[in-house]
Specification:
283 residues, TIM Barrel, six-stranded parallel β-sheet, three-stranded antiparallel β-sheet, LLM class flavin-dependent oxidoreductase, oxidoreductase, Luciferase-like_sf, F420-G6PD/mer
């Protein structure tokens, strides 16, 4: 019998997917965002604790044999049968979106990949990657088996002046609201949604009216855009920045071009530029 079996259901879906793909599918997972929790009446308490139990269950489903019994604070399984197994050679990978101390620890203990979003600099990346690797070693795992990855929103143009003009548009400046509050403090101002606002977790769009959003966007300091986790520049500048992250340990980057929010022309160029960047990084 399965009781409150979110982890088992996720594992079952991923193992089903492994029979439909040519490569091992990747489960990207994190502690959750309030926009996907609060409006639906779900319990937002102890998100990292819930995630840790879910990861334990998922890994047991992927690699265990026989009925699974698990008794945690949030999830319970009583001799849960998981007859479905991953396709041969395609056991799903678990990539954890970890940023804080506890999440980095979970990544090292249970993850096959580390997939952060708001790491701003190569130095910060190297420091947090080392925390992941220490947690892996302490858990008896091979730190080198965990893929150091990175997700980046990308604003790219043919000339730096063009890119800086895009950074000044309202739609791109809005992305600055998703920068961590400590990055705002470094710029000498408080985040308009609160000193301790965590945009990855706390942002629920429906809670802000248009005027509140407009005022918040106007308050975004330029430093938050240019020095924060937004990747911007010409293709050559972007490649140089990513090579700095590669020197800090990065092995896999996922680029999400957002230039297309500005214009159709920018969208078409960003797609060509992303291919150019990928080819340059392959060498």
């Amino acid at each position: 019998m399965l009781i409150n079996n979110a982890g088992a259901l996720i594992a079952q879906a991923m193992m089903t997917l492994s029979h439909l793909t040519k490569r091992a599918p990747i489960l990207g997972i994190g502690a959750g965002e309030r926009m996907n929790i609060d409006p639906y009446g779900l319990d937002p308490s102890d998100p990292v604790g819930r995630l840790e139990e879910a990861l334990q269950i998922i890994r047991q489903c992927f690699y265990g044999s026989g009925p699974i019994t698990f008794s945690g604070k949030h999830f319970k399984l009583e001799r849960a049968t998981m007859d479905l197994k991953p396709a041969s050679g395609r056991t799903p990978q678990i990539w954890v979106a970890g940023h804080g101390r506890r999440m980095l620890g979970l990544t090292g203990r249970y993850g096959d990949g580390w997939y952060p979003t708001v790491v701003a600099s190569p130095d910060e990346y190297a420091t947090k990657l080392e925390a992941v690797r220490i947690a892996a070693r302490n858990a008896g795992r091979d730190p080198g088996s965990i893929v150091p990855a990175l997700h980046r929103f990308l604003v790219v143009g043919q000339a730096e002046s063009e890119v800086r003009a895009m950074l000044g548009t309202k739609v791109i400046r809005a992305l600055g609201l998703m920068a961590p509050a400590d990055l705002w403090r470094q710029a000498g101002v408080a985040h308009p949604f609160g000193e301790d606002f965590n945009p990855l977790v706390d942002f629920v769009p429906d809670r802000y009216d248009r005027q509140t959003m407009n005022d918040a966007i106007d308050a975004v300091p330029n430093e938050v855009l240019t020095e924060g986790p937004l990747l911007w520049g010409t293709p050559e500048q972007v490649v140089a920045k990513l090579r700095s992250f590669r020197a800090a340990g990065l092995r896999h980057v996922v680029l999400a071009p957002v230039s297309g929010l500005v214009s159709r022309r920018a969208a078409l160029y960003s797609l060509r530029a992303t291919g150019k960047i990928a080819r340059a990084l392959a060498h």
